[in-house]
Write a structure and sequence with these properties.
The structure holds two protein chains of two kinds. Chain A is built from seven helices and four strands, in the order ααααβααβββα. Chain A is of the alpha+beta class. Chain A folds into two domains: 56 residues; 82 residues, Glutaredoxin (3-Layer(aba) Sandwich), CATH 3.40.30. In chain A, α2 packs antiparallel against α3 and α3 packs across α4. The model of chain A has no long low-confidence stretch (mean pLDDT 95). Classes of the chains: A alpha+beta, B alpha/beta. At the A-B interface, α2, α4, α5 and β4 of A face α1, β11, β15 and α15 of B.
Chain lengths: 152, 529
């Protein structure tokens, strides 16, 4: 979907800014809010570029730099921490050869951490794009990521 | 209408979808068709039945038999053995049944069970069908409000019920509505705070996924009572299924004339919209949430003025938590006196808890106010996992308190816990077994706050950073004498000077960890000279 079509889905009210940015980001192949995304949003809502940028930078679900095709968001809040999230994070860093916030060389995965996802009953948990995964172990993470690699 | 002899309820919530519930559902329907039972057995979707971590869960009625960890390959056996031949499949039967009732202890110490209030329909009805909600007594309360109670009567009933906010702050709900009804200015708004972000809490998600119409009815009753005309549900961006189900439920209510203009010829007009958040813990604070709804950075506002007089777009606004609003329809249906039959004198009603961590059956439960921590852990959650010993619990989320074994018999309600300098907060109970390192857990809590501090005020922005630096040193074995005292001091300054509850609440996990696990924490730094 092009940017114009996305904007037209919403009334040009400031209260729609989060919805518009969600939609622009979801439709950006690099899964982030590019300069152009912020520009069209600002123009549509009749606010300065700096305003949209400041709102985008406040919320963790928005990214201002390009990301991989798949975004891993590992929960590191206390419940997941208790159930072993830290060793899982170390494992992900080593096996993907990236740091938190980094994207793999092939552009397939970006590794992020997140606050509580509300999946504490199956901690440790992570989201892969919009999908939730729980009761994670290193083996389980491997098979999830392998599966995703094959789908590309 | 076709009469079916068996109903198979399949729990479709975020957790079971994760475990492959949709594939199991399809396999069951296919298999039932293959065996020629399509007219006799119905497969129905429902919300969470309360157990988590047990994979795909189904319930077969009229037997009321639970199966856990069901895989698509099991469909053949379940249909052929149980549904066709009447022989339950033993290997899949759930061993630890989720408590679908509120447990009460009588004077004799015997257990008796009572129906739930908030979770009454969750895991029982199909949340995507308004008719099932209505059949379970839904939208009766709004009728009673229109015909019998009128707005003043609704406020009185909710006040008399003693209902207090379930989001953490425990303010009297009826009072809040009363203030808003007297506040000058039009229009007035009701906002449901579904920005559930307190670590360990997922009760609101499961209420939304399991019974969305109950929330809609609760919001209607609130708006009717104080003169609101428009409602917003501010929900976490991560809660995709909740958003989908709510939007569906709102549309159904509109189609039935339950939302819209002149509802049921009462002269009351009301409509609802869902707003999706974008990941910011601080937006759970009501004024930050309002800022976010207006399309701004989610910074908290100065109080006063409070939202009841000057809220969304400067108009009188009531902000209530999901669980609070989900209590209201039952209060209005059955009356305040009935509601006061539950819970304690000072805190009537029930509380929905998420009990997680090192327990045998983690999940969602509803218990009376005043139930002890011991009963919650051992009666509802099956005790500590793998027969280990209880060490402590983090109660109320990251902004809550660490509690030691001496608190197991304390009655849990908002008022009573306050006397112990603890909080019930959002109702998250993270249970820790004997192997847990308290310093490690405290480190995780402090890192959480550093990440979520919005940066608006100095004490919180710098304080969280300082605290993380100190706890990282201590956890690494590089702590110095005086470090712990410094942490306490910083958190006290933050408690007294931070702009909003986020910065104010860090003192609680720190001071409670020191209260109950003093030796362990001090054991990690050299003694003061």
């Amino acid at each position: 979907m092009d940017r114009e079509a996305i904007l037209k889905k919403f009334e040009p009210n400031l209260s729609n800014i989060l919805y518009i940015m969600h939609d622009l980001q979801d439709n950006n192949p690099q899964r982030y809010l590019a300069k152009e995304d912020i520009e069209v949003c600002a123009e549509y809502l009749n606010v300065p570029y700096s305003y949209v940028h400041s709102v985008a930078s406040f919320y963790t679900m928005f990214s201002l730099k390009p990301r991989g095709k798949n975004i891993i968001r590992l929960c590191e809040s206390p419940p997941c921490h208790l159930m072993g999230a830290r060793s899982l994070l170390d494992y992900l860093k080593t096996s993907l050869k990236v740091d938190v916030g980094g994207t793999t060389k092939d552009g397939v995965f970006t590794l992020e951490t997140t606050s509580c996802l509300g999946a504490c009953g199956v901690a440790p948990a992570m989201m892969l794009n919009d999908e939730m995964f729980g009761n994670l172990t290193a083996e389980k993470v491997d098979s999830i990521l392998d599966q995703r690699r094959k789908e590309i | 209408m076709n009469l079916v002899r068996n109903h198979v309820l399949i729990s479709i919530d975020a957790g079971t979808i994760m475990a492959g519930a949709r594939a199991v559902e399809k396999a069951l329907v296919d298999e039932i068709g293959k065996q020629g039972l399509a007219g006799e057995i119905a497969v129905l979707e429902t919300g969470s039945i309360g157990a988590t971590g047990q994979g795909v869960v189904i319930v077969v009625y009229p037997e009321g038999l639970y199966y856990a960890n069901v895989a698509p390959e099991d469909a053949h056996e379940i249909v052929e053995e149980h549904l066709l031949k009447g022989r339950p499949v033993k290997r899949l039967m759930m061993t630890e049944m989720p408590k679908q009732q509120v447990i009460r202890k009588g004077k004799t110490g015997l257990l008796k069970e009572q129906p739930r209030i908030v979770l009454k329909n969750s895991g029982v009805i199909n949340p995507e069908n308004i008719d099932e909600y209505i059949a379970a007594g839904g939208y009766e309360a709004i009728e009673r409000a229109f015909t019998e109670l009128k707005p003043a009567g609704v406020i009185k009933e909710v006040k008399d019920s003693g209902l207090v906010g379930r989001g953490g702050a425990a303010f009297t709900t009826g009072m809040k509505w009363d203030f808003a009804s007297r506040a000058p200015g039009q229009p007035k708004y009701i906002i449901c705070n579904a920005d559930e972000g307190e670590p360990g809490t997922f009760k609101d998600r499961l209420i939304l996924e399991g019974d969305p119409h109950k929330l809609i009815e609760g919001m209607m009753l609130a708006a009717y009572a104080f003169g609101g005309s428009k409602g917003f549900i501010y929900i976490r961006g991560e809660y995709a299924l909740s958003i989908e189900r709510l939007e569906k439920a709102i549309q159904q209510a509109r189609d039935y004339g339950i939302l819209g203009d002149n509802i049921l010829e009462s002269g009351f007009s009301f409509d609802l919209a869902v707003m999706k958040g974008a990941g910011a813990y601080v937006c759970g604070e009501e004024t930050a949430l309002i800022e976010s709804l207006e399309g701004k950075r989610g910074h908290p506002r100065n109080k006063p003025p409070y939202p009841v007089t000057e809220g969304l777009w400067g108009k009188p606004t009531v902000v209530n938590n999901v669980e609070t609003l989900a209590n209201v329809p039952e209060i209005i249906r059955h009356g305040a006196a009935w509601y006061r039959g539950y819970g304690t004198e000072k805190c009537p009603g029930t509380k929905v808890y998420t009990i997680i961590g090192n327990v045998a059956t983690p999940g969602l439960i509803e218990a009376e106010m005043g139930t002890t921590l011991r009963d919650i852990i051992y009666e509802y959650a099956g005790g500590i996992k793998a027969g280990k010993q209880f060490k402590g619990a983090l109660v109320g989320g990251a902004a809550g308190a660490f509690l030691g074994p001496e608190m197991l018999d304390a009655q849990m309600d908002f008022v009573n816990l306050r006397e112990y300098a603890a909080v019930l907060g959002s109702g998250a109970i993270l249970v820790m077994d004997e192997h847990t390192d308290i310093v490690d857990m405290l480190q995780s809590v402090l890192h959480f706050f550093k990440h979520e501090s919005c940066g608006h005020c100095v004490p919180c922005r710098l304080g969280t950073k300082e605290l993380v630096e100190i706890i990282d040193q201590i956890a690494d074995g590089k702590g110095k004498a005086g470090d712990i005292e410094k942490m306490v001091k910083i958190s006290e300054v933050m408690r007294d000077t931070s702009f909003c509850p986020l910065g104010q609440s860090l003192n609680l996990p720190i001071s409670s960890a020191l209260k109950y696990f003093k030796d362990e924490v001090y054991g990690r730094v050299p003694a003061a000279v």
